[in-house]
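Side project, low priority. Logging it here so it doesn't get lost.
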Amino acid sequence: MNPSTNGWIKKYFTDKDKYQIFLSNDSEEISTQIRKIGFSYGIIDIAELPTIYQNFKYTQEELSKICYLQLLEKVFNIHAKSTNEEDFLKVLIGFYDVLIPHKNNIITSLFADKNPYSKLESVMSMRWKEHFFSQSKINDFVMNMILLFIDVLAFEAYINESIDPNVFNQHIVEHLKEITLSFKKNQNNPDNKDLQLINFLQSNKSLDTDPIKDRPSINFENNFIIDYIVCNSWDNEKREIELPDFSEEPFISVLYSQDKLKESIFYFTLVLVKNNYDYNYYRSSNLFDNVIKNSSSYLELLLTRNKDRLIKELQKNTQLMKLLVDSTHRDLTKEEKKMVKKQTIEVIKTIPSLAIFILPGGTIILPILLRFIPSLLPSSFNENIDESN
C-alpha cells in the first residue's frame, strides 16, 4: 500500500487487517497509541507500527496519510457505533463536502461522479496540499501533520455533536493561536522567525465571538491540546521542557489530568531522544525551503524502492518494440493491439518524467510535479495495483 499513488485507500480496505494500526475502540487507549507512535508530535516512528510497514520504505508524509485515514475511521467507529465501510466513506465524504467550499471547477471536480475511494483520495490529497502551502508560509512538516489532526477532531465534532466543521476549525485554530502566542511572547530573546510568527498570528486573529466556546470538549480534543502544549513547551536551545502556568489564560480552560500530562511528556521525551533532541514546529520561514526539503529526496526514494518495477517497465517497452516490428509483416491480434495501445500510453507517461528530470533543476521540479500529478509515473510504479490481475 502506497499513499503516494492512486488506489491506496481501496488497497487499505482490501487488506485492512494487515495494515490496521489502531486496534482499540477506546479513545483513551487510541490517544496513548497516537502519542507512542509519535503522530501527536508530528514525527512518526515506523518501528512502533505493525510489521508490514517495515517491508516498504515509507516517507513521513505517507505514514501520516495512513494514520490520518485510520483515525478518521476510528472516530466513525466509536461515535457512529458502526464498522460499515460504505457508511464510513459516505459520512466522511459528506463531512468534506461541508468543510471544503465548492467555489471553482477544480474543487467541484473533486466531487464529480467517481467511486468513493477515488473521490476520498482526491479530497485528502487536496487537503494535504492546502495545509502544506498555507498562507502562513511557516509550516514545517511537523506543523502540517498537526493541522491535519485538526480535521480528525472536526470530524469527531461533526459526528458526535453535529457541529459545522468550518465553525469547529475556527474554534480550535483560534485556541491554538492563543497558546502559541502565549509561548512566543514569554520567550526570552525571540529571533526574527519568532517575531514574524507573532506578527502573523496577531494579524490573523479572529474578532468573531466563538459560538462553541462553552461546549465540553471530548477525549481526542483534550489530549490533542495537551500534546500541543507539551510540544510548544520544548526549548530547542536550552534542551528542556518549560511548561506554562495552567492557572493563567489561555491554559486555564484546558481540561487535563496530571496523569495525561505526564504521559504526554513521557512519549514526547521519547520522540526527542530518537531525534537527538532536535525538534521544531517552525523550522523554516520560507515556503520554497519547505517544498525543497520535503521533495528533494523523493525521486531517489521512488527509484530505489521501485527498481524492480523500473526493470519491468523497460521489459514491457521491449515487448512493445517487438510488436511494432511484427506489425510491419503481419496483422496483430486484438489482444496484441490492446497491448500496443496500452504500452504506448505508458511510454508517453514515462518520457515526460524523464524529460523533466534531465532539465536544469529537474531533480527538484520532478518530485514536486509527481506529488501533484502522480499519473506522470507508469502504472508499474503503483504498488496498490494487484499484480495477480
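Brief comment: DSSP finds 17 helices and two strands in the chain.
Revisit when time allows.
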